[in-house]
Amino acid sequence: FSARVVIDPTTAIGDVPRRLFGTFVEHMGRSVYEGIYEPGHPEAGDDGFRRDVLDLVRELGATTVRYPGGNFVSGYRWEDGVGPRDQRPVRLDAAWHSLETNQVGLHEFADWARDAGLELMYAVNLGTRGIAEAADVLEYANHPSGTALAEQRRANGADEPFGIRLWCLGNEVDGPWQIGHKTADEYGRLAAETARLMTFIDPTIELVAAGSSNADMPTFGEWERTVLRHTMGLVDHISLHAYYEESDGDAASFLASGVGLDRYIDEVAGIIDEVSANATSVADGGAASARPIGISVDEWNVWYQRRWNEVDKPVVMNGEWPEHPRLIEDEYTVTDAVVVGSLLISLLRHSDRVSMANLAQLVNVIAPIRSEPGGPAWRQTTFFPFQLTAALASGAVVRPVVSAPQIDTARYGSVDAIDTVATVAESGRTVLFAVNRSLDEPAELTVSLPAAGAGLVVGRATTLTVPEGGDRHTSNTAAARPVAPRDLDGVRLDSTTLTATLPPLSWTVIVLD
Ligand code: AHR
């Protein structure tokens, strides 16, 4: 089929927020232990962190990392993870029915994140704990010296404060599965008062209030409205979490997940605007209008959650209490990678409202990077669209005008067969990201560039699609890694008209310099 795309930089919606390429490390499963940290592994450094995994993390090119949870944080005592390791307690992690040894905590993780080039985004426990403990961990982390908590940090080896700017006020508090689950009013009040005290202690921080766990929550919408009425003027971002999966073989709906994310973000943006417009009825009305709220897509990815909820979770939650068991180690296919590419396109398309986003998670647990104990580490299929988007998206984001055939989906109605976004840098470098959602037809794409595009040449054209001899379910494993991006042949730029053939079921990036 044929599709036309028009890129008009005068319609740019703003610059690519670098924090859009965040990620997430939770103390769950083999994310930390046997993931990033495995003393005794041949690749482990003196600090016990795996160098081969660290290299892949650096290659991924993420910008921020959310830590330490997730559901885990709602039962976590941060103090357990600081001080001499041989005195740290082993605790039950009731969120994931595991034992937490606390061998990795704030110091070790902050050092690792710095080595990995990641900005740390720290989540406080608003499940079993509250205002005082959130204030304590902030003071411990960020206050320079001269108080009991700051001196404790220094005695524990960190003379300089960690200087953490980004703080999440709890996690998925709207979900009945969450330890310390609350109503929107209960959470809104707690989040507001926690935010107030944390800002008194360190006015340079940015705070994220917890929004909905997914767009199908019965409380979605009213939750955001209520929480924002309590917290507007006191926080900088509200979160949303979004996971997608292919259900009952409905590939068409799955490949349209980006449309689902578009609508979800648009709804939250609308609620932010609505509450902002009525800010005079908010307790902190004066400050509210002066403190814009961004959307933090704190957790997003493909996750075969139905399998977790219906098959694995009932077993895990009623069994033994193991240390770092294998939990939700989804093995991603080509189809999953194309959807991840499309979700990144959706995030870029909303750069005017999405202030940051975290691919959940980073290693082993629904992750772009996998590792085996004592064994190799490797790139899952989803690694590639994330890495290439983080590396190549720069400058202003442009939403192209698309004319393409429609694909009928059970979940989202008719959607464009092509999904695209572009970025245009000051140098003129124009980067087009495109997904062909058709499972069996190539897309003959014609892209009209602005007159300024006349001097550009095709610098790079890369596609991720079904490999030779594979199918849409092909994945990368410890034994074989057949899925990798390859050059897209036949891309032509003729003055201001670009033509390319996008393979069926593919994610593509074309760079014009
Ligand atoms: O990322 C896995 C889990 O998904 C997180 O712990 C939780 O916040 C979400 O439900």
UniProtKB/TrEMBL annotation:
<dbReference type="Pfam" id="PF22848">
    <property type="entry name" value="ASD1_dom"/>
</dbReference>
<comment type="similarity">
    <text>Belongs to the glycosyl hydrolase 51 family.</text>
</comment>
<dbReference type="InterPro" id="IPR017853">
    <property type="entry name" value="GH"/>
</dbReference>
<protein>
    <recommendedName>
        <fullName>non-reducing end alpha-L-arabinofuranosidase</fullName>
        <ecNumber>3.2.1.55</ecNumber>
    </recommendedName>
</protein>
<keyword id="KW-0119">Carbohydrate metabolism</keyword>
<feature type="domain" description="Alpha-L-arabinofuranosidase C-terminal">
    <location>
        <begin position="298"/>
        <end position="506"/>
    </location>
</feature>
<dbReference type="Pfam" id="PF06964">
    <property type="entry name" value="Alpha-L-AF_C"/>
</dbReference>
<comment type="subunit">
    <text>Homohexamer; trimer of dimers.</text>
</comment>
<keyword id="KW-0378">Hydrolase</keyword>
<keyword id="KW-0326">Glycosidase</keyword>
<dbReference type="InterPro" id="IPR010720">
    <property type="entry name" value="Alpha-L-AF_C"/>
</dbReference>
<dbReference type="InterPro" id="IPR013780">
    <property type="entry name" value="Glyco_hydro_b"/>
</dbReference>
<dbReference type="InterPro" id="IPR055235">
    <property type="entry name" value="ASD1_cat"/>
</dbReference>
